[in-house]
Target: DHC_N2 domain-containing protein
Amino acid sequence: MLHWSQCTTPWRTKRGADIASGHHQLVVADMKLKLKKHWTTGQTALQRFDTAILRHTSKLNAFKITVNNRFQALRNLLKEVPTMEDIWEGNKEALISTCQEVSGHKKHHHKEWIFIETLHKIEKTKSIRADKQKDVEELRY
Model:
């Protein structure tokens, strides 16, 4: 939704755009617009794989074996003279499929917007304010 008062800068009317009448005037204004970014989902999005799982030796060995098997199968398929693009696509597909199979995608963990310590501090300040208010009311009477 646009807020026209915020988008338009000082504007002027000009009489130069008359079309057989004196009532039509040309309005000249500069506008500032902010465009929203349109995120696409699916294959075009950046795929982040969970590489921290490869720190475990068993997962690392499984990854190595799977990659070697995929590259061996790729070499068998490309016995004829392959182009550079064929080699690149084959390597890319082998690595991506192996990463999906062994490690999976990296899951985004959202940060807590407020911590438990902060909640405790808020409760503490509320109780201190309530005690001060109680003391002030006792002094009044």
User: Anything to note?
Assistant: The first strand starts at residue 12 and ends at 14. Strands lie at 12-14, 26-28. The longest helix spans residues 116-140. The chain has a mean pLDDT of 79.
